[in-house]
Design brief:
Shape: globular
Bound molecules: adenosine-5'-triphosphate, magnesium ion
Helix content: 25-40%
Pfam families: ABC_tran
Distance between the termini: 37 Å
Number of strands: 10
Order of helices and strands: EEEHEEHEHHHEHEHEE
GO molecular function: ATP binding; ATP hydrolysis activity; transmembrane transporter activity
Number of helices: 7
Keywords: ATP-binding, Cell cycle, Cell division, Nucleotide-binding
Mean pLDDT: 93
Organism: Roseovarius pacificus
CATH class: Alpha Beta
Largest sheet: 6 strands, mixed
Strand content: 15-25%
Protein name: Cell division transport system ATP-binding protein
Length: about 230
């Protein structure tokens, strides 16, 4: 096994997940190939966030296999999972910040946690803050940010470690259409830089808008299963 499995950065094979009741997700197989762009959609409660958590090793499957960068999560020590997770940037659905730190410090937090030399990363941090359009807000505290500014700070924090994969959970929740387009453009730009992207969203208009800019596969969770959505969006 193993070697002939293709080169998916994140691979799920016949995965099922249950929080303890009945199965929420059944027989899910998925490969995120390098450079690919995926949307994950489905009704509220279908299991989008849960599936993303399986994709970054925050949850272990109750059946089937999850491989992160070629290694089965079940064989991984906690440290191995932590290392793999550094290669995966996550924009969480409820982006949380440390409110006593500045926006800039919050974006830099993954660098601090992993013991990087902040001085050496200063230019990177500045560039990234500028890229998400938050230079003028860099010294503000998170509670002073608008919804769109929070989402952009969360995106910057997710990519500060230069991950190979970015998983974004409803990155355009609670922002207006114009801001959701702006966030989408940032994610498309990351993809053009070679990053593998998966966005969970219930916003079909966003998915339609994306199709003009990027070749994306649209996956839908329906009745516990993952389907490739057709052109009928
Ligand atoms: N930690 C947990 N323990 C038990 N049940 C959970 C837990 N987390 C989520 N669930 C349940 O699992 C189901 C799927 O939740 P999930 O958050 O994955 O859905 P979602 O598709 O992301 O929904 P939304 O679009 O509202 O974000 C829901 O019914 C939810 O209540
Ligand atoms: Mg969710």
């Amino acid at each position: 096994m193993g070697a002939d499995k293709g080169a998916g950065l994140i691979e799920l094979e016949n995965v099922a997940y249950s929080y303890g009741g009945g199965e929420l997700l059944s027989d899910i197989s998925l490969q995120l190939q390098p450079g690919s762009f995926h949307f994950l959609t489905g009704p509220s409660g279908a299991g989008k966030t849960t599936l993303l958590k399986l994709c970054y090793g925050a949850l272990l499957p109750t059946a089937g296999d999850v491989r992160l960068f070629g290694t089965d999560v079940r064989g991984m020590e906690r440290d191995d999972i932590a290392l793999s997770r550094r290669r995966i940037g996550v924009v969480h659905q409820d982006c949380q910040f440390l409110d006593h730190l500045s926006v800039s410090e919050n974006i830099a937090l993954p660098l601090m946690v992993s013991g990087r030399d902040l001085l050496a990363e200063a230019a990177n941090l500045k560039e990234l803050t500028n890229w998400v359009g938050l230079t003028s807000r860099a010294e503000a505290r998170p509670p002073e940010l608008s919804g769109g500014e929070r989402q952009r700070a969360a995106l910057a924090r997710a990519v500060i470690m230069s991950p190979d994969v970015v998983l974004a959970d409803e990155p355009t929740g609670n922002v207006d259409w114009e801001m959701s387009q702006r966030l989408l453009r940032l994610l498309v730009e990351l993809n053009r830089m070679g990053k593998t992207i998966m966005i969970a969203t219930h916003d079909l208009a966003l998915i339609r808008a994306a199709k003009a800019h990027v070749q994306a596969r649209v996956l839908r969770i329906s009745n516990r299963h993952l389907q490739l959505a057709g052109a009928d969006l």
